[in-house]
Design brief:
The chain is of the alpha+beta class and 233 residues long. The chain has one domain. β5, α5 and β6 form a beta-alpha-beta unit. The chain is globular, with a radius of gyration of 17 Å.
Length: 233
Amino acid sequence: MKKFLALVALFLTLPAIGFAKEDSKSTLNQRLNSATQIIHALMAMPGKNIPLDVAGKTQCVIVVPSFKKAAFVLGAQYGQGVASCRTAKGWSAPAFIQLEGASVGFQIGGQSTDLVLLGVSHRSLDDLLKDKLKLGADASVAAGPVGRNAQASTTELANADFLTYSRSKGLFAGIDLSGDVVHQNTDDTRSFYGKNIPFNVILKGGVPTPASAAHFIATVNQLFRAGKAQDAR
């Protein structure tokens, strides 16, 4: 029994061990490219994309390519992604984040999915600037609606700070990430920018967008502008 518990404990520490490794700048550029492709896919999916009324009120965007969810009696989930928030000068340069959590269950196996989190309240930027943001506790979260005609009209959706989506087998759907924690990946920030820059400096627009991140930021802006154009009609 002691050996079994030791194996479980070791399994649950694997995500933390993975986070300790600092990724190279080329790997981070690839993550930005993957995030860009995910947003394009979410906008282009006929009948299954983000509702334009949701896109138009988005204040912050977080994309986590290949979010990993594994299970061995106790489950663990973790991922590394990028975030950008809307400022008075446009969308901020990307900030690198970690998303981690745990789940309890009796499934054995694992899976990987792409995640998109949309901060749709004016509080979402302030929420992200916390040292560690616990979804569902520090900020309200709800599974995001999909479809061109879907409206975020229910009380839960209307009051949510963040709407969350996952992509599985090419299709996007809302997902419940309550209990997961978002915080800055300081190692990747240092690797990408050459020094450790605080979250609030990046997400408030205090850092110029590097050329390698320009496509990602332009795609985020495209998502937002499509929603605002719909609102203006």
